Amino acid sequence: MPNFIMTHHAELTQGLAAIGLALTPEQIALLEGYLGLLAKWNQTYNLTAIREQERMVSYHLLDSLTLVPHLAGGTRLLDVGSGGGMPGIPAAIARPDLQVVVLDANHKKTTFLRQAVIELKLPNVEVITDRVEAYQPAQKFDRITSRAFSELAEFVKLSRHLLADGGQFVAMKGVYPYEEIAQLPEDFAVSEVLPLVVPGLDAERHLVRVVAK
Predict the structure, then answer these.
(1) What angle do CA 202, 204, 210 make, to 5 degrees?
(2) Annotated binding-site residue? 26
(3) Is 147 annotated as ligand-binding?
(4) What is the pLDDT of residues 103-142, one digit of tens each?
């Protein structure tokens, strides 16, 4: 074991380099600010089962940020079942040009999300408290993501009315979801499944891109 303790900042900056994301010092500071808020509110609101900040860097920040390189071409992102804001808030910080809606039916979680958006001053993030199947925005989304909302088929069925023409689902999964892919609605298809490497996380991660046939 190394005879030093890596700071959160060093772990984050080294992780960003490993992912290939070049962020400004201001963006890194926002990510660290978000992590601090998440850890603070988690003591009361039970936003995540991961309670140690040193684990939150890899499990939440870096895991969420592996999505960002795969959002190219998108302008509006919906994060379904966002919970504590993953991956929507880190993605919004990394891509300030992206309009992000973080949606969750849990009022306590969206209370936290609204406070985080205010304190971090994130003008490109909108927080919605609603069930995804009931949500009816004025404008649809060209990218819809989820990290821990439901199985793939259920995710697509419940949120398909929110996908713009030519849009994509970009679901974040653990092990390769063979069975979930097999159960997709017949009018949707997987265009690619990409393995994701999350620095500091010893677990399989995959991104599944789903499009309408």
Answers:
(1) 150
(2) no
(3) yes
(4) 999 999 999 999 999 999 999 999 999 999 999 999 999 9
